[in-house]
Amino acid sequence: MAALSSMEKKLAEYKCNTNEVIKLKLVRFPEDIDDDSTTFGPEFSHQLFGDDEVAFGYKGLQILLYYSAGNLSTMFRVHYSSKVDDKFDGVQADDVESKIREIIPPGFCQGTDDFVSLLEKEVNFKPFGPIIHTYTVYNEEAGEEITYQIHKADLTCPGFREYHERLQTFLMWFIETASYIDVDDDRWDFFLVFEKYNKDGTTLFATVGYMTVYNYYVYPDKTRPRVSQMLVLPPFQGEGHGAQLLETVHRYYVSSPNILDVTAEDPSENFVRLRDFVLAKLCQDLPCFSTEKLLEGFSQEMVTEAQQKLKINKQHARRVYEILRLRATDMSDPEKSRAYRLEVKKRLVGPYKKNQREMAKMRQCLKPEELTNQMNQIDLKTQHDQLEESYQELVSEYRRTVERLAQA
Ligand SMILES: CC(C)(COP(=O)(O)OP(=O)(O)OC[C@H]1O[C@@H](n2cnc3c(N)ncnc32)[C@H](O)[C@@H]1OP(=O)(O)O)[C@@H](O)C(=O)NCCC(=O)NCCS
C-alpha cells in the first residue's frame, strides 16, 4: 500500500496543468523573446489535453508558441527538465508535441535564430483587404495616441488563407467550444483589427483581433450575417477594441439592402455584454429610443428603426430598450421602479407560462393519486422565485452596461 502511494506521488510530480505550461507570445522586437512580461497563457486547453487540462510525463514542461506580431509567423518549441521512462511501469508520457502539431499549420520554425529572421520580415507584412474603419486609443504607458485599423479581408487577398490558419490557432486557447471553419465557403466574411506601430522609424502592423461572420441565406432574397467567432488577443483585451470591431461590423452591413440583421452563433456571456453595450450605444441616438418613447413601452417602431438603420435583430432591440429604459427610470421612485420591473418580468415570464401550459397538459395525463396540491404549490413558488432571480440578475447586467455607456 505504502509503495503504491509513493508511486502515485511520483506520478503526480510528472503531471502539469497545461494552461500554466503553454506560453504564448506576440513578438515585435527580438528582446521580447526573453521578456517574461509579454508572455500569456491559455484560458482553456481542454480541447487538446482533456477536461483536466493536464499533461503527464514531464517535469519542468514548457510549451512555447511564439508568434511574430503581424504575420503571426510561428516558433514552436517544447522544453522539459525530465521525462518519465521505463521505471514508471510502462506508463508513457503524453505526446504533447503531436497534440500541438494537430492544431498549428506546418511551416513553423523551432529555433530562436530562425524566428529572429522571420521577425525581420515583419516589415513586409501589410494588413489584408480594404480599411473600413480607423480609430485611435490613448496609451498611458506610451504616452501617445495609438492608431488601429479594421480591415475586411477575403480569400482573394494573397497570403490570407495561410495567415488565417495561424490566427485561428488562438481560438483553441480562448474560446471554450472553438472549432476551425471551412474558409472555402464563400459565405464567410472576415474582419481584422491591426495596430500601427513604429520600429526603427518604419510603420509596422500588429494583429489585435478578428471576427468571422457567416452570411446565412434567408428566403427569398435576404441575408442574415451571423457572428461566428470573435477574438481580441489577450494583450489587447479591455481596451475597447471588441466594441470598435462589433460596431464597425454593424455599420459595414448597414449599407446593404439585402441584409436583414446581424445575429450571433451561441454567444458567450462576454459577447452578450459587449453586444449590449455596442447596440445600446448605437440606439441611444435614434429618435424612437428617446426618453419619452422609452417610458411609453416597447414598440414596433423601435424594432423597425433599429433593424433598418442599424441591422439590429428584434430580440436585441428589446434588450436595448430594457437597458435604455432602466437608464431613463428613477429606480428610487417605488411607482416607476415597479412599472419597470413589471415590464421586464412580462417578457421574462413568457418561457414560464409555456412551462406552466406544459405542466397543465402533463397533469391531465396523471392519475389523481399522482397529483398533490403540494406539488402545484411548490411549482408556483419555485417559478416565482426563479423569475425574481432572473430579473435581479438581468438588472445587474444592465446596470454594468449603463455604467459603461456613461463612460463612453
Ligand atoms: C469578448 C471579447 C471579444 C471582448 O473584446 P475586448 O476588446 O476585450 O472588449 P472591450 O475592451 O470593448 O470591452 C471589454 C471590457 O473592457 C472594458 N474596457 C474597455 N475599454 C476600457 C478602458 N479604456 N478602460 C477600462 N476598461 C475598459 C469594458 O468596459 C469591458 O468591461 P466588462 O467586460 O466589464 O463589460 C474578448 O474579451 C475576447 O476575445 N474574449 C475571448 C473570446 C470570446 O469570448 N469571444 C466571444 C465569443 S466568440
Account of the protein in words:
- It catalyses: L-lysyl-[protein] + acetyl-CoA = N(6)-acetyl-L-lysyl-[protein] + CoA + H(+).
- Its EC number is 2.3.1.48.
- It comes from Engystomops pustulosus.
- The structure is a single chain.
- The protein has 408 residues and is an alpha+beta fold.
- The chain has three domains: 11-123, Alpha-Beta Complex (Histone Acetyltransferase, domain 1), CATH 3.90.360.10; 127-162 and 177-266, Aminopeptidase (3-Layer(aba) Sandwich); 284-408, Arc Repressor Mutant, subunit A (Orthogonal Bundle).
- It contains 14 helices and 14 strands.
- The protein has helices at residues 2-13, 18-21, 46-49, 96-103, 112-120, 160-167, 171-174, 241-254, 269-283, 291-296, 300-310, 314-328, 334-365, 373-407, and strands at residues 15-17, 22-27, 39-40, 54-56, 58-59, 62-68, 74-79, 82-83, 131-139, 144-153, 188-199, 202-218, 222-232, 263-264.
- The protein has a six-stranded mixed β-sheet, with helices on one face. It has a four-stranded mixed β-sheet with strand order 3-2-6-7. Strands 1-4 form a two-stranded antiparallel sheet.
- A hairpin with a 4-residue loop joins strand 9 (131-139) and strand 10 (144-153).
- The model has no long low-confidence stretch (mean pLDDT 93).
- The site of coenzyme A has 20 residues, from strand 13, helix 8, helix 9 and helix 14.
Notable features of this structure?
Arc Repressor Mutant, subunit A; acyltransferase; Histone Acetyltransferase, domain 1; Aminopeptidase; 408 residues; 6-stranded mixed β-sheet; EC 2.3.1.48; globular; histone acetyltransferase activity; binds coenzyme A; transferase
